[in-house]
Write the C-alpha coordinates for this entry.
Amino acid sequence: MQMRNIAFRDMRLPRLGAMRSGGFSPALLFAGGAEGAWYDPSDLSTLFQDSAGTTPVTASGQPVGLMFDKSGNGNHATQATAAKRPIYTEGSGLAWLAFDGVDDAMVTAAIDFTGTNKMSVLAGVRKLSDAATGVMADLSADATDSDGTFAMYNSATSTVNGAGFFSQGTAIGVANATAGLVPPANAAITGLGDISGDSSIIRINGIQRANGPQDQGSGNYGNHVLNIGSRNQTSRFFNGNIYGIIIAGKMASTDEIAATEAYLAAKSGVTL
Protein backbone atom coordinates (compact mmCIF):
# COMPACT_ATOMS: atom_id res chain seq x y z
CA MET A 1 0.00 0.00 0.00
CA GLN A 2 1.44 3.36 -1.01
CA MET A 3 1.31 5.82 1.92
CA ARG A 4 3.93 8.40 0.88
CA ASN A 5 1.30 11.05 0.18
CA ILE A 6 0.30 11.26 3.85
CA ALA A 7 1.81 14.40 5.35
CA PHE A 8 3.08 13.90 8.88
CA ARG A 9 4.21 17.23 10.20
CA ASP A 10 6.77 19.95 9.68
CA MET A 11 10.06 18.92 11.28
CA ARG A 12 12.30 21.60 12.76
CA LEU A 13 15.86 20.42 12.34
CA PRO A 14 18.26 21.05 15.24
CA ARG A 15 21.82 22.26 14.78
CA LEU A 16 24.77 20.10 15.86
CA GLY A 17 25.30 22.39 18.83
CA ALA A 18 21.80 21.56 20.04
CA MET A 19 22.59 17.87 19.69
CA ARG A 20 25.67 18.19 21.87
CA SER A 21 23.82 20.22 24.50
CA GLY A 22 21.20 17.53 24.99
CA GLY A 23 18.53 18.78 22.56
CA PHE A 24 19.11 15.98 20.06
CA SER A 25 16.42 14.85 17.64
CA PRO A 26 16.92 12.09 15.05
CA ALA A 27 15.59 14.60 12.52
CA LEU A 28 19.16 15.90 12.42
CA LEU A 29 20.22 12.82 10.46
CA PHE A 30 17.97 13.91 7.58
CA ALA A 31 18.84 17.63 7.63
CA GLY A 32 20.90 17.32 4.45
CA GLY A 33 18.11 15.62 2.53
CA ALA A 34 19.15 12.04 3.27
CA GLU A 35 16.65 9.37 2.23
CA GLY A 36 15.47 7.07 4.98
CA ALA A 37 12.95 6.66 7.77
CA TRP A 38 12.41 7.27 11.48
CA TYR A 39 9.87 5.21 13.41
CA ASP A 40 8.98 6.16 16.99
CA PRO A 41 6.36 3.91 18.64
CA SER A 42 6.35 6.16 21.73
CA ASP A 43 4.68 8.89 19.64
CA LEU A 44 1.00 7.92 19.54
CA SER A 45 0.28 10.53 16.88
CA THR A 46 2.17 8.32 14.41
CA LEU A 47 0.30 5.06 15.11
CA PHE A 48 -3.00 3.74 13.74
CA GLN A 49 -4.79 0.46 14.32
CA ASP A 50 -5.66 -0.01 10.64
CA SER A 51 -3.45 0.29 7.57
CA ALA A 52 -5.67 3.04 6.09
CA GLY A 53 -4.94 5.34 9.04
CA THR A 54 -8.56 5.89 10.10
CA THR A 55 -8.43 4.52 13.67
CA PRO A 56 -5.72 5.97 15.94
CA VAL A 57 -3.89 3.90 18.51
CA THR A 58 -4.92 5.28 21.90
CA ALA A 59 -4.01 2.63 24.47
CA SER A 60 -1.66 -0.21 25.27
CA GLY A 61 -2.72 -3.55 23.82
CA GLN A 62 -4.02 -2.22 20.51
CA PRO A 63 -2.72 -3.47 17.12
CA VAL A 64 -0.68 -1.24 14.80
CA GLY A 65 -1.54 -1.35 11.11
CA LEU A 66 0.14 1.94 10.14
CA MET A 67 3.20 3.68 11.57
CA PHE A 68 4.16 7.08 10.19
CA ASP A 69 7.72 7.88 9.21
CA LYS A 70 8.92 10.97 11.12
CA SER A 71 11.95 11.64 8.88
CA GLY A 72 9.94 13.73 6.44
CA ASN A 73 10.53 11.22 3.63
CA GLY A 74 7.05 9.70 3.78
CA ASN A 75 8.23 6.10 4.12
CA HIS A 76 5.33 4.94 6.29
CA ALA A 77 5.14 1.29 7.41
CA THR A 78 1.93 -0.73 7.16
CA GLN A 79 0.42 -4.14 7.81
CA ALA A 80 -2.76 -4.86 5.85
CA THR A 81 -3.54 -8.19 7.55
CA ALA A 82 -5.11 -7.67 10.98
CA ALA A 83 -3.71 -10.88 12.51
CA LYS A 84 -0.14 -9.91 11.54
CA ARG A 85 -0.07 -6.51 13.21
CA PRO A 86 2.36 -5.90 16.10
CA ILE A 87 0.86 -4.71 19.38
CA TYR A 88 1.43 -1.27 20.87
CA THR A 89 2.49 -1.79 24.48
CA GLU A 90 3.40 0.43 27.44
CA GLY A 91 5.22 -0.40 30.65
CA SER A 92 7.76 1.02 33.11
CA GLY A 93 7.61 4.40 31.38
CA LEU A 94 8.46 2.92 27.97
CA ALA A 95 6.45 2.28 24.82
CA TRP A 96 7.09 -0.23 22.07
CA LEU A 97 5.73 -2.47 19.34
CA ALA A 98 5.62 -6.12 20.43
CA PHE A 99 6.38 -8.61 17.63
CA ASP A 100 5.30 -12.18 18.41
CA GLY A 101 7.96 -14.09 16.43
CA VAL A 102 5.21 -15.98 14.58
CA ASP A 103 3.69 -13.71 11.91
CA ASP A 104 3.87 -10.07 13.03
CA ALA A 105 5.50 -7.76 10.48
CA MET A 106 5.34 -4.33 8.84
CA VAL A 107 6.53 -3.16 5.42
CA THR A 108 6.99 0.07 3.48
CA ALA A 109 6.65 0.91 -0.18
CA ALA A 110 9.97 0.85 -2.05
CA ILE A 111 12.53 3.32 -0.69
CA ASP A 112 14.93 4.69 -3.28
CA PHE A 113 18.46 4.44 -1.89
CA THR A 114 20.06 4.29 -5.35
CA GLY A 115 21.85 7.59 -4.74
CA THR A 116 24.09 6.26 -1.95
CA ASN A 117 26.49 3.41 -1.18
CA LYS A 118 26.54 4.15 2.56
CA MET A 119 23.91 3.32 5.17
CA SER A 120 23.26 3.88 8.88
CA VAL A 121 20.68 1.65 10.60
CA LEU A 122 19.96 2.22 14.30
CA ALA A 123 17.36 0.47 16.44
CA GLY A 124 16.21 0.19 20.02
CA VAL A 125 15.03 -3.36 20.70
CA ARG A 126 14.37 -6.06 23.24
CA LYS A 127 15.41 -9.50 22.03
CA LEU A 128 13.44 -12.26 23.74
CA SER A 129 15.01 -15.35 22.22
CA ASP A 130 17.76 -16.72 19.99
CA ALA A 131 15.83 -19.92 19.25
CA ALA A 132 15.14 -18.79 15.70
CA THR A 133 16.52 -16.19 13.32
CA GLY A 134 14.60 -12.93 13.59
CA VAL A 135 14.88 -9.89 11.32
CA MET A 136 14.58 -6.41 12.82
CA ALA A 137 15.03 -4.49 9.57
CA ASP A 138 15.55 -5.87 6.06
CA LEU A 139 15.82 -3.87 2.82
CA SER A 140 14.17 -5.85 -0.02
CA ALA A 141 11.95 -8.91 -0.21
CA ASP A 142 14.98 -11.14 0.31
CA ALA A 143 18.12 -9.20 1.07
CA THR A 144 20.48 -12.14 0.51
CA ASP A 145 19.21 -12.57 -3.07
CA SER A 146 19.17 -8.90 -4.12
CA ASP A 147 21.90 -6.38 -4.84
CA GLY A 148 22.04 -3.14 -2.87
CA THR A 149 20.55 -4.35 0.39
CA PHE A 150 21.10 -4.57 4.15
CA ALA A 151 19.63 -6.44 7.10
CA MET A 152 19.81 -6.28 10.91
CA TYR A 153 18.94 -9.51 12.70
CA ASN A 154 19.48 -12.00 15.48
CA SER A 155 20.30 -15.56 14.52
CA ALA A 156 19.89 -19.01 15.99
CA THR A 157 23.37 -19.88 14.71
CA SER A 158 25.78 -17.04 13.98
CA THR A 159 24.72 -14.37 16.47
CA VAL A 160 23.55 -16.23 19.58
CA ASN A 161 23.86 -13.80 22.52
CA GLY A 162 24.46 -10.97 20.05
CA ALA A 163 23.14 -9.53 16.81
CA GLY A 164 24.19 -9.20 13.19
CA PHE A 165 24.22 -6.78 10.28
CA PHE A 166 25.07 -7.21 6.64
CA SER A 167 25.53 -4.80 3.79
CA GLN A 168 25.54 -5.84 0.16
CA GLY A 169 26.40 -4.27 -3.16
CA THR A 170 26.91 -7.01 -5.73
CA ALA A 171 28.51 -9.11 -2.95
CA ILE A 172 27.83 -9.39 0.76
CA GLY A 173 29.75 -8.21 3.82
CA VAL A 174 28.62 -9.68 7.14
CA ALA A 175 29.26 -8.56 10.73
CA ASN A 176 28.13 -11.08 13.35
CA ALA A 177 28.45 -10.29 17.06
CA THR A 178 28.27 -13.25 19.43
CA ALA A 179 28.33 -11.19 22.63
CA GLY A 180 26.64 -8.17 24.12
CA LEU A 181 22.98 -9.22 23.93
CA VAL A 182 22.03 -12.31 25.95
CA PRO A 183 18.24 -12.76 25.73
CA PRO A 184 16.04 -11.49 27.15
CA ALA A 185 17.78 -8.13 26.90
CA ASN A 186 17.24 -4.57 25.73
CA ALA A 187 19.76 -2.77 23.55
CA ALA A 188 20.53 0.05 21.17
CA ILE A 189 21.91 -1.64 18.06
CA THR A 190 23.69 0.08 15.18
CA GLY A 191 24.53 -1.28 11.74
CA LEU A 192 26.81 0.72 9.46
CA GLY A 193 27.25 -0.25 5.82
CA ASP A 194 29.71 1.06 3.25
CA ILE A 195 29.62 -0.77 -0.07
CA SER A 196 32.55 1.09 -1.65
CA GLY A 197 34.56 0.89 1.56
CA ASP A 198 33.86 -2.84 2.08
CA SER A 199 32.72 -2.22 5.64
CA SER A 200 29.82 -3.78 7.54
CA ILE A 201 29.80 -2.86 11.25
CA ILE A 202 27.59 -3.98 14.14
CA ARG A 203 27.52 -2.01 17.40
CA ILE A 204 25.63 -2.99 20.55
CA ASN A 205 25.04 -0.43 23.31
CA GLY A 206 27.70 1.91 22.02
CA ILE A 207 30.40 -0.74 21.57
CA GLN A 208 31.59 -2.00 18.19
CA ARG A 209 31.31 -5.78 18.27
CA ALA A 210 32.24 -6.83 14.72
CA ASN A 211 33.24 -5.51 11.30
CA GLY A 212 32.80 -7.68 8.24
CA PRO A 213 35.72 -6.86 5.90
CA GLN A 214 34.46 -8.86 2.92
CA ASP A 215 34.39 -7.35 -0.56
CA GLN A 216 30.88 -5.98 -1.12
CA GLY A 217 31.30 -5.65 -4.85
CA SER A 218 30.09 -2.45 -6.46
CA GLY A 219 27.11 -0.17 -6.90
CA ASN A 220 24.75 1.62 -4.53
CA TYR A 221 21.89 0.46 -2.37
CA GLY A 222 18.69 -0.31 -4.25
CA ASN A 223 15.08 0.78 -4.60
CA HIS A 224 13.52 -1.86 -2.35
CA VAL A 225 10.79 -2.22 0.24
CA LEU A 226 11.82 -2.10 3.90
CA ASN A 227 10.62 -4.98 6.04
CA ILE A 228 10.33 -4.51 9.80
CA GLY A 229 10.11 -7.58 12.03
CA SER A 230 10.39 -10.19 9.29
CA ARG A 231 11.77 -11.15 5.92
CA ASN A 232 9.14 -10.30 3.33
CA GLN A 233 6.31 -10.94 5.83
CA THR A 234 6.78 -14.69 5.31
CA SER A 235 9.76 -15.84 7.39
CA ARG A 236 12.39 -14.95 10.01
CA PHE A 237 9.90 -13.24 12.30
CA PHE A 238 11.43 -11.21 15.12
CA ASN A 239 10.50 -12.27 18.66
CA GLY A 240 10.78 -9.14 20.74
CA ASN A 241 10.05 -5.45 21.11
CA ILE A 242 10.97 -2.53 18.88
CA TYR A 243 11.26 0.84 20.64
CA GLY A 244 12.44 2.74 17.58
CA ILE A 245 14.17 2.37 14.23
CA ILE A 246 16.12 5.07 12.37
CA ILE A 247 17.55 4.47 8.90
CA ALA A 248 19.56 7.10 7.01
CA GLY A 249 21.02 6.65 3.56
CA LYS A 250 24.41 8.04 4.53
CA MET A 251 27.31 7.30 6.88
CA ALA A 252 26.34 9.05 10.10
CA SER A 253 29.09 11.01 11.82
CA THR A 254 30.65 9.86 15.07
CA ASP A 255 28.65 12.52 16.95
CA GLU A 256 25.41 11.52 15.21
CA ILE A 257 25.93 7.84 15.97
CA ALA A 258 26.67 8.48 19.65
CA ALA A 259 23.70 10.83 20.06
CA THR A 260 21.28 8.53 18.24
CA GLU A 261 22.44 5.50 20.23
CA ALA A 262 21.88 7.44 23.46
CA TYR A 263 18.43 8.52 22.23
CA LEU A 264 17.42 4.95 21.38
CA ALA A 265 18.94 3.55 24.56
CA ALA A 266 16.76 5.91 26.61
CA LYS A 267 13.71 4.84 24.58
CA SER A 268 14.63 1.21 25.33
CA GLY A 269 15.35 1.52 29.06
CA VAL A 270 19.10 1.07 28.57
CA THR A 271 21.84 3.12 30.24
CA LEU A 272 24.95 3.55 28.11
User: Anything to note?
Assistant: Helices lie at 16-20, 254-268. Residues 1-21 have pLDDT under 50 and may be disordered. Residues 36-268 form a domain with the Jelly Rolls fold (CATH 2.60.120.200).
